[in-house]
Give the backbone structure.
Amino acid sequence: MMSTQASNTHALPSVTFRDEHAHNKKPIFATYHDKLEHSQLDKQGRTDAPCVVDVYETELPWWRATIRARILSSVKRESLILARMQERIRHPWLDLYFLYSSTLGTQTFFMIGLPLAFFFGYEEFGRGLVIVLASGVYIVSFLKDLICSPRPLAPPVTRLTIGMHHLEYGFPSTHSANSVSMALFIFGYVRSAYIQSNAISSSIYYGSCVILVIYAVTIVFGRLYTAMHSFTDCAVGVFLGVVIWGAYVIMKETFGNWLATAHWIVPLTMIPICLLLVHYHPHPVDDCPCFEDAIAFASVFLGIALCRWHSVRSGIDERFLSSVMPGPQGTVWTWEDTASWWALACAKVTVGILAIFVWRILAKSLLHLVLPPLFRLLASSFDLPHRRFYTPATDYQHMPVESSLRPIPSVIDLPGVLAVSTIRERSALGRTSEVKRRGVKSNDGSPSANGENYSGSELENSNGPSQRKEVKHYDADVLTKVVVYAGMAILAGEGLPVTFALLGWGVKPQ
């Protein structure tokens, strides 16, 4: 078995291998938790060290702490099982397979792939998939920040990860929920095409079913293989995926008809609901990216719903969204016809994705310029909502330029350089070692280990620990993300397809 030196998303893509059995090697993580490596967690997730208490017991309400303690006891037991499983089946080829296949269950994959459905006229399919995935991401993120349960403890497991997903809490598994709900959603369309319309052959139908099963099993089992989730995390994630898909099947016709009513009640209802979902998202003990994922997908859901309402109200769906891409008629195409069609399709994808990112840069920059002064003005007369880890506008004058102009979404992480990390921590109390260390504190209430906090980017290298580097959040970021991601959905669902139709590129393939 091998492990690598963990690195953040800005590190070089090279991977340094270490012999984890070499006792003269320093641990990858050098934190206060190393001093507690011989302490054992009891059933409530507490250490037997007399001078240490679990901060979650003091910061969480009793009912949240109770639920977390029960899940934590399962995580402890299942970590041992996962470690034994890894010892038996881990292989370098399997490491690569499950690492890179995990990207097919990420928000990044969905946020890039979903607009394509609207670019090529599959509006109903794309809208339904957005509803299913957005519901799953919000519900799972809500539960993660509500319960604050850690991922499998490392050691004994060796955790393999790409990007920043290890910075989130563990329970339940977002990958499992997304992969199962999406597989079932696509299966519904495949089955309808095979049974009801006879649009596909038996071989295509059964082949599609096999691919969907392999996809879901790969993603779910991969979370166990990489030790990113426990069996409980994945089981609850699979259950939520099935429930979310079932709820969509039951309600899709009613919800679709409601969006198509063309009454102003649609935006007057959807916008407040989205804002309330953002406002009442649980406050975690640690600074967790789950909240930002929830904002992004709730806002995309809002944007897609408003697209459907507006396109029906204005007649855009009939005048523009039904236009056909230019190309030869009939079923027999020459090589020139095929090349011409694919060139146009690539142009649509390139222009569409570029326009979405340009919108993000400009809108985020403008909102970061306008919102802080507006918040400071309102704060003089009202008590504005304040979220933990987000600095209020009254406490800063300017937002960093790089925070406003990063072209790649920070919520849905698209690593500029793909970072592959193999993580073996020395101990895990409360949150895992990658996240800011608030897992323990001394009896006098002071932070442990001289008050040192470590984030995912503060990992020890051969030259010693890196300097402290903390991610800053600002209150203007919250409303900015709502507007930016809702706007991205509106662009993908209506603005760009209409533009393609006006340019003569069409929307629907022949």
